[in-house]
Amino acid sequence: MDDLLSEFLTETAENLSVLDVELVRLEQNPNNPELLSNIFRLVHTIKGTCGFLGLPRLEAVAHASENVLGKFRDGTLHITPGAVSVILRSLDTIKGILAVLEATEAEPPGDDSALIVLLHEVEEGKEVSAAGGGMAPMPTKPAKAAAKPLVVEMRPQPDLDIDFEPVRAVRQDPDPEPEPVKVAPAKPAAAPKREVAVVEAAPSEPPPVRDSGEDPRESAPKESAVAAQTIRVNVDLLENLMTMVSELVLTRNQLLQILRSQKDSEFAAPLQRLNHVTSELQEGVMKTRMQPIGNAWAKLPRLVRDLAHELGKKIDLQMLGADTELDRQVLELIKDPLTHMVRNSADHGLETGADRLRVGKPEIGRVTLNAYHEGGHIIIEISDDGRGIDLEGIKRKVVQNGIATESEISAMTDQQIQQFIMKAGFSTAAKITSVSGRGVGMDVVKTNIEKIGGTIEIKSSKGRGSTFIIKIPLTLAIVSALIVECAGERFAIPQISVVELVRAAADSEHTIERLKGTPVLRLRNRLLPLVSLQTLLKLEGVDGASDDETFIVVTQVGTYTFGIMVDRVFDTEEIVVKPVAPILRHIEMFSGNTILGDGSVIMILDPNGIASGSGNITLGESRGSEAMAVQAARQDDKMALLLFMAGGGAPKAVPLSLVARLEDVDMASIELSNGQPVVQYRGRLMPLVPIDPCFERHSEGRQPVLVFADGDRSMGLIVDEILDIVEEKLQVQLAAERQGYMGSAIIAGKATDVLDAGFYLTQAYKDWFGSSATEAFEEDKVHRVLLVDDSPFFRNLLTPLLSVAGYNVTTVPSALEALNLCEAGESFDVIVSDIEMPGMTGLEFAAAVRNGSRWQHLPLVALSSHASPRDLDRGRAAGFDDYVAKFDRDALLYTLSQTLSAHKGAA
Amino acid sequence: MSNAKLPAKKAKSEEPSSGHMDFVTMTIANQLFGIPVLQVQDVLGHQRITRIPLAPPEVAGSLNLRGRIVTAIDVRLRLGLSGRPKDKPEMSIVVDLRGELYSLIVDAVGEVLSLSTDDFERNPATLDARWREVSTGIYRLNNQLMVVLDVSRLLNFANLEVA
Prior knowledge:
By secondary structure, chain A is of the alpha+beta class. Chain A is built from 30 helices and 37 strands. A 6-stranded mixed β-sheet of chain A has the order 12-16-17-15-14-13. Chain A has a 6-stranded mixed β-sheet with strand order 29-21-22-32-31-30, with no helix packed on it.
């Protein structure tokens, strides 16, 4: 069942039972305004939720009741038993509808107009007979219902028109039955009525209404199944439970630590058990706090819809990963920032439909929310395909507001300038709308996210949209922390901010150098600013501590990376973050403190505080140099290769990314079909191709097989032995003369034959490349792809791959040749280009294409073995529409089809 | 401190209300201090304390008291006295202030005294300003004076609001 619906059912069931009681009390004390407003509020809530969920029948009934109650509340209508009865009856109707709703997830068809008319009459002040209005809907067997225990199963009866006929019958056939509501105490009053409603809902042919026998307990009306499955627990109780479990975990850790120092303790076994139970308990309690992030998003579609109306834009909100779960507490804390950011994207980010059409984008703007887990964190991306962040606008505003001078700004990187939108009181919106632009917001968003140990990153490219990436911890209760020592004191650093650890010593490859006393470290060809924890915390040096050996905790805060110098690094430990005492809250360097397994108290360092406390560091400063470093590092691109032996001679290699699976096939299971060896594999026949042409099939034993798969077909390549998987830079040095090989390369220090997988694929299926050509696209037209790559290996690799997917591929070895083709008047649907190429790089090529060439409107997809977000930015900046990792076959195909369809939409 | 038990001779008091108050006594640099007994949670011997860098000097560090983190305050420094000599033993009184626990490090903890409010007197106007800030008044005991410490004022460091 839909989460929203089930929540609604639970809540409404609760509200209704409260209402039953309250209404009866109201009837007894008609002058209790508090009671009345409570009732009004409950009914109002029900009405509101019904409307939100699109349940018109419920809404209509609730609305009419609310009107009556509103008059009661205002004092314009006198509370009479008759009126109360009518309202109670409408509650019963609601309950009946809810029962069906719960079973079938749809509102039953039916007509409540009689009831509504009745309610209107009450509202207008017409007297409704109390007796008549009372328990009329029991013309058949009210007495029986009360006397005879019944269990009513509310199975959906699809062929039934559950109409709540009795409700309509009320007026026509007033029943002189005594009004039980008036005489019975509150609770029972509700009970028989509910039963009656159900009985009445039953059709003439008695449905599974089963006589339950003698047990009177069973006469209790069946509670809503959904309501019975969940209970509402006070959040405080859960929090409390969580704290206790956290303490238990700590105590457990402490015990385990003691156990480790004692051999052969008789406590070992029970402690192990305690360990397991505690872990499970912890997990269980954590789960009670976990909620799908979709809960925080539930209101967004509506919000975006309203925004779209207000702003006159067409907005498509896409929400991915709504079932990603995270801690309730975290969820609460990110709810508002998320709403704000979506609002921002819709208002600032997206252009109006007309503007979008003008720049050649689809009229409907898209805002995408994507949530997923990544190593103990939740990543939430909010992206739009709008105009991107207006750097010039920010610059103007910054100068205007006197935040920075023009010369300062001109020295800043784009990344730094974008960071300004996170500053308080900063808004570039030309006019203040009711939506956003008031200059409060992004700074609050940032503060809120950082408060829970999260980070936020901005990526934007002008005209192509912006993406905000929020990284937050899964839970706040227990975090993993690295324990370090500095000047004899131990500190914990939250693992979330630790990127890597580097040991720096005189004898190691890393040494700390000093620039006018400021320590820096060369790390992978760039300088990493260092912060001495000892200096920062003003710790007194301990004798013997020297610069001989220092550990550097490379820490990342936002986009700023720096190193924290410490003396020693211990283990990581799971810690429960506790707030520091109020008199210490002003110290920015600490985010909290905790008790370690050995019982000692330890301070938790706050990387954000350290970053801001360690000098005039503007976040995002290091971005530019980082990109350079990445580019330099890219020289040694590596790829995973599968090494195997087959057919004697040198070891063979094939890119691991091409291999779907490794299987061990029992030779006895190989059959011959059409003269070709095949094996039954996952319910299909998989042709087997030996690499060794002289391969002799043994009748027994097992043989390793590399499985290549494409869609639902697969083929197996029989090899002799699988050797290893290595990460190597693949440089095909000798072109192959033999069929089935691309050439030779040095891999793992040995000359290795690089396999041409495409050759073997066609051995298995002659039509491997091409049969699916028409499947991939609905149109008859085959898309033409221009592939620009200097490496013959990749050209050979990708050509079959793209052909399989139904593209017509043209390859050129360099960007210049590609431009020649452009001059020559060739036309393509999409260009896929490598980035690192001799002569003209992919980035330059993209810029050249975009700069007024004939192909300037063609989609461009960059292809590189590195597809980090940073690369993506650079690619986008150069004019690429998308960026794909070289070996990610699926991503490439997906991106191509996406890019093509997007362009088609825009055209 | 048994010699301090008996109240000194009765003198006119500014506190007209009579009755008894119970105090936990302690000595710091040979001066007797008292804290209302109801505010005291625990009395501890020497504890392993984790130093807190960048904290005010009066904050000695934090310690683990049965799973709760307690902030330790060096009362000597808070009262403007010199730091404790390394070889001298120390004791702590744990107090509760608005749900937070603080451990007050003193030289020695004495006993619980029930004192008549008749012997209470406001701080002399000439008292050291630092002491006046943290003390509510003085009790005259037989042969010495006991300074009553106000825990919330003691923990309200200069320009710091104890939330």
